# Entry
Amino acid sequence: MDCVLYQTIKNMRRLLVLLAKVLAGYALVGFAVVPAALHFAASQAAPKFLSVPMQLGAVLFNPFTLRLSLQSIKLGESKEHVAGFSEFSIDLAWDSVINRELHIQSIKLKKPFADVVLQNNDKINLSSVVKASKKKSSSDSDNETASEGTSTLQVHLDQLSVQQASFSFLDQLIALESGTPFAAKISKLDIYGTDLGWPNMDGEINVSGRINGDSTFSLNNKLALPAMELAAKASLQNIDLTLIQPYLTPFVFVELENGKLTTKLDLTWTEQNGAALSSDLNISQLNVKDERDQSSIIVLRKLDLSGIQYSQAKNTLAIKEISLIEPVLRVAIESNLQINLAGLLKQKKETLTREKTAQVQSTETEPLTFDIGKISIQKGSMDFADRSFSPGFVTPINNLNGEISKISSASSSPTTLAITGQIDRYSPVTINGQVDISAPLENSEFKLAFDSVELTTLTPYAGRFAGYTIHKGRMDLELFYRLQNSELFAQNSMLLEHLTLGEKVDSDEAVDLPIRLAIALLKDRDGRIDIKLPVKGNLNNPEFELGPLIRMALINMLTNIVSAPFDFLASLVGGDASEMQAVGFSQGVDSIAPHQKKALDSLVSALRDRPEMQLEVMGTATVKEDWPLVAEALLEQVWINELSALKKQTDTPSLPEKETLELLKSIAQKQQIDIPEALKYQEAREFMVESWPYDEGALRSLAIRRAKGIKDYLTEQGLEAERVFILDVQTPKENLTEESAIISKLELTSE
# Structure
C-alpha cells in the first residue's frame, strides 16, 4: 500500500515538474522569444514594405493574457516623423482559440499622430510611405475574391480605445487655385468604442477632439450590422469658418474675416430610407469682406437655424426658424452699374461636351422640397451706396426688424413679409408683401413705405438727373408692386414737403426741363407735392428695367406739366385751360367779358394753392381790329374838347348843322385830314376815323388797360398783386388768332 502511494506521489511530482517546465518554456517563449522574433521580423520586413525608416520601440507579449503591445512606432526620418504612436496594444480572448470567431477583448492606441499632406500632384504623402506592391494577376484576384466571399470568419471587438490622437492636414493642391493651402490640426482626439465586429455588430463609438486648439467636436455613433443602420449624435463648438477660405477663393471674391460655427445634430441612416437629420445651427461674429477692396459685405452678430429637419427618403428640408441678429448688409452699385453682391462670383468658363450634358441631364432628380417657418431679423441694418456716378450716393437703413413667414415650396399659402426700419434714425421704413414661392411672377404683391426721408440725402441723384442740388425738404414715398402672370403693375406715390432746390449742377444726364417751374406748379399752399406715378410692364421682356421705366414715367409727367401748365391747373379746379391762359377782348374794348371772369376765377383758385407760381400778363391791341375804334375814340375825345371850348365862346347850348360840320372840318384840318366838300357830317366823321393819323401810343394804351384790367380783377379776387407781372404789350398789325376776340396772353412762371 505504501509503495503504491509513494509511486503515485512520485508520478504527480514528475507531472508537476513537467507542467512547470512547460509553463516556464511557454512563458519564456511568450515573454521573450515571441517579442524578440516579432521585433526582428518587423525590423527586417519594414524596408521591404516601407519607403521611409521605421523606429520601433519595445514589443511586449503576455502569453497568459494574450496581450500584444507595440511601444513607440515612428515612421519617417528623425525629427521629421510623418506618423506613429506611443503605444498599441491588443488583447485577444482565449475563446478565439476554440471558436471560429476572432474575439478581441480590447484594442488600445495611445497618442497616435500623422501629418497628412495632399500634394500638388493630387497624391497624399502617406501613400508613398508604403511601397507599391506588384500587380496581381486576374486569376489571383478572382481566387481572393472567391475566398473572401466564402469566408466565415467572424470578428468581435469588446472595446476600442484611441487616446490623445493628433493629426495635421495640409492641402497643397488647393493652393494652386487659391494661392493659400488649407491647414488644420486635430488634437486631443479620443475614440472609444464598444461591441464592434463583423459581420454582426450592435455597437457604439464615441469620438471627441479639438480642431486648431479652440474648436471642439464630439460624435456618438450607434452601428448595427447586418441591418445597415446608423444613429449618430454630433456636436461642433466654435468651428472657425475662416478654415474654408482656400476653398472659397477660386469661386468668389469673398474673404471670411471672422465667423464661428456651432451645431448639434442627430443623424440616422438606414439602407432602406437613407439619411434623416435633425439639427440646430448657430453662426456667430460673422464678417464677410470683398477681397478686392477689403470692404465688409455681410456682418452679423448671430445667425440661428433652429428645428432643421431633413429626410432623404421624402427629399424634404424643413427649418422652423432662421434668426438673424444684428445683421449688416452692404449693397453697392458699382461704376459699371453692376451690384456688388452679383459681382462676387468669379466667372469660370467650362464647356460641356455632349456626353457631359447628357450625363448631367440623366442624373437630374426631383427638386428638394423645402419649408421654412419664418426668417426673423433683429436690429439689422443695410448700407446702400451708388458709385455709378460722381459724387455718388450713400444712405443707411437702420434698426431693421421683422420677419418673413411661410416660406414653402410645397404649400399654396403665400410667403408674407413684414419688416420695419429707419433711414438716418428718424425716417421710418416699412416693407410688407406676399409672394407665391413656387411661382413668384404669377401672383405677388409688395408695398414699401418710407416716411419723412430728408431729401438732402438724395442731392447726388437730384444733381445727376435734375441738374440741381436739394437745399431742403422731406419725402414720404410709398411703392406698391403687383405681379400677375409676369405683368408688373406698380403705383409709386411721393409726397414731397417743402422741397427747395439749391445750386445748379452740371450733369450730362440732367433732363432738359424747367425743373423750378415744375416744382412750383406741383407744390401746394402747404409746400407739399403729391405725385402718383403708375408704371406697368412685362417682366418677360428682356429689355424691361424697372428703374429706367420709373424715371422715364416721371420725366414724361414733368414734361407734360411744364409744356401745358394751364392744363395741369385746370385739372385741379375743373376749369377750362384754354380760357384760363388767355383773355379775349372785343374790338376796342378794355373791359373783361363775364364768361372770361369765370375762367379767371378758376385761375385764382388754382394759384392760391400754388404760392410759388407767378403770372405774367401780356396786353394786346391790334392795328386792324382795334385801331379803327381807338381812332374813333380819339376823334370823339377831340370833338368833345373842341365842342366844349366853342360853346363857352359862343355861349350857345347847341350848334346848327352847318357849324357842326365846320367844327369837324376844323378838327380835320388840325389833324391834316382833307375832307371832301361833298360829304355830309356823318360821312365826313366816318372819313375822319378812317383817315385819323396812326397813334402807336394810343393803341399801346389800350393794350396796357387790358393787361391792368386783368391784374386788377385777379387781385380783387384774392390773388396777391406781387405775384402778377404786366409785361411789355404787343401791338401787331392784325389779330394773331383766328378768334374774333383780341387775345391777351397769360404765362406762368416760378419765383
User: Anything to note?
Assistant: Residues 144-150, 349-358 have pLDDT under 50 and may be disordered.
